[in-house]
Amino acid sequence: MHDDCVAAVRDAGALLESLGHRVEPGFPSVLADASFSGRFIAMWGAGMKTGIDALGAMLGRELTQDEVEPVNWAQVEFVKGMSAIDYSTALGAVADYRRQVQSWWADGWDLLLTPTIAEPPPRIGEHANEPDNPLAPLMRAGEYVTFTPPFNTSGQPAMNLPLWWNDAGLPIGVQLVAAYGREDLLLRLASQVEAARPWADRRPSA
Predict the structure, then answer these.
(1) What CA–CA distances, in Å, run from 69 to 41, 95, 137, 163?
(2) Which of 70, 43, 71, 75 has its CA nearest to residue 149?
(3) The CA-based dihedral angle spanning residues 123, 41, 115, 200, taken in that order and rounded to the nearest 10 degrees
(4) Vertex 107 angle, CA 17 and 176, to 5°
């Protein structure tokens, strides 16, 4: 975790407390399960293969390797070695994960505050394709995209707010996550914090 991202979350917590909210440490324990990504990959790869096949159907022919980004083609090749059982296991893992994540809010929490990503914004070109290492863009993203995928998976609403800026003049986002179906809570809070600390007229200087 980059120091800027830690500072951004602490600052956001202090701002929320100043607005009358109670901020306490805590998070769904299943988020610490490092094995989930491996159980999820069959579903991710199958989705990529389905999408590429759908594009081919629209064109009336199969897509060729040179028409697909290397990182996406690599995922399609990887998933070809998986079985229906692998896919079914992935679906089950996702369903169980979703229940465990969402149960934290059912235990009485209103919102979860996290960094949006674990580093300051990446530079343009950091995700460029590498012919000899097609998974390089995916691996680079995996180094800092830690806090958003769990809620893509669980289906819960989340928002990113640029409340803190680092010494380089870059916005460091914080993420707030609500229970399933509670977009109203997120929007009300966003309105409150934007009134307290407006950002619409700010522009990155780096």
Answers:
(1) 18, 29, 10, 34
(2) 43
(3) 60
(4) 45
The 10 Å Cβ neighbour count of residue 188 is 10
Q: Does the structure show a pLDDT above 60 at 181?
A: yes
C-alpha to C-alpha distance for 166 and 3, rounded to whole angstroms? 10
Is the confidence at residue 117, as pLDDT, over 70? Answer: yes
pTM value is: 0.86
- What is each CA distance from 199 to 75, 116, 162, 192, in whole angstroms? 38, 16, 7, 13
Is residue 40 within 8 A of residue 89, CB to CB? The reply is: no
* Token duo for residue 197: 């600390």
CB 109 within 8 A of CB 28: no
pLDDT in tens, 56-79: 999 999 999 999 999 899 888 888
- Rg value, the chain, Cα: 20
Q: Are 172 and 1 in contact (CB under 8 A)?
A: no
For residue 11, the SS3 value is helix
What separation in angstroms does the CA of 84 have from each of 51, 108, 140?
Answer: 18, 38, 29
Q: Residue 102 is encoded by which pair of tokens?
A: 């969402």
Angle between helices 84-106 and 36-59 (to 10 degrees): 120
The residue assigned the tokens 């530079």 is 123
- Return the structure tokens found at 118: 């674990």
